[in-house]
Inverse folding.
């Protein structure tokens, strides 16, 4: 797979299919990117499980923090790695040791580990690197433009919303009630 760019349909299918996300590198500090990504994903209806050995047993946004992926008492669909590229290798290996395995390894902005990605893909997982699920969700749902972000889509048509809040042309919207 080419990890330099991702088709919007791939990102959309991942964001629509996952329900439970383990966020490795979660922070309780409200100004840290991992905190507001976690908050955003929870607000969109995902179950986000924070992983941080220094905060294990505490709560972030009402969710219990676990020391490692192996400590999470339920299966996760996606592992979101909020650590550096070197740490992404061992975290990916820890994810691959889970039973059942997650479906997706997602490495945050500026995080890229091609060797870890190859191991995950060889095990049948989908991998996204150097991307933020919050930003990608925002781009696909149309919210990104609301805050001045560039969606990369040029169109003279205004996107319309259903009463439910789902963007018609993208099929993404609030996940509450799934």
């Amino acid at each position: 797979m080419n990890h330099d760019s991702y088709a919007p349909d791939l990102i959309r299918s991942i964001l629509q299919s996952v329900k439970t996300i383990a966020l490795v590198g979660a922070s309780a500090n409200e100004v840290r990117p991992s905190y507001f990504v976690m908050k955003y994903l929870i607000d969109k209806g995902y179950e986000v499980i924070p992983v941080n050995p220094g905060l294990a047993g505490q709560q972030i946004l009402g969710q219990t923090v676990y020391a490692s992926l192996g400590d999470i008492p339920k299966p996760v669909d996606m592992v979101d790695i909020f650590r550096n590229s070197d740490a992404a290798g061992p975290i990916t290996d820890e994810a691959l040791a889970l039973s059942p395995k997650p479906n997706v390894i997602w490495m945050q902005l500026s995080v890229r580990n091609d060797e870890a990605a190859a191991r995950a893909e060889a095990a049948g997982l989908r991998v996204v690197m150097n991307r933020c699920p919050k930003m990608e969700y925002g781009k696909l749902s149309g919210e990104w433009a609301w805050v001045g972000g560039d969606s990369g889509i040029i169109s003279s048509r205004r996107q319309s919303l259903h009463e439910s809040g789902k963007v018609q042309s993208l099929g993404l919207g609030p996940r509450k009630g799934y």
Summary: The chain has one domain: 8-146.
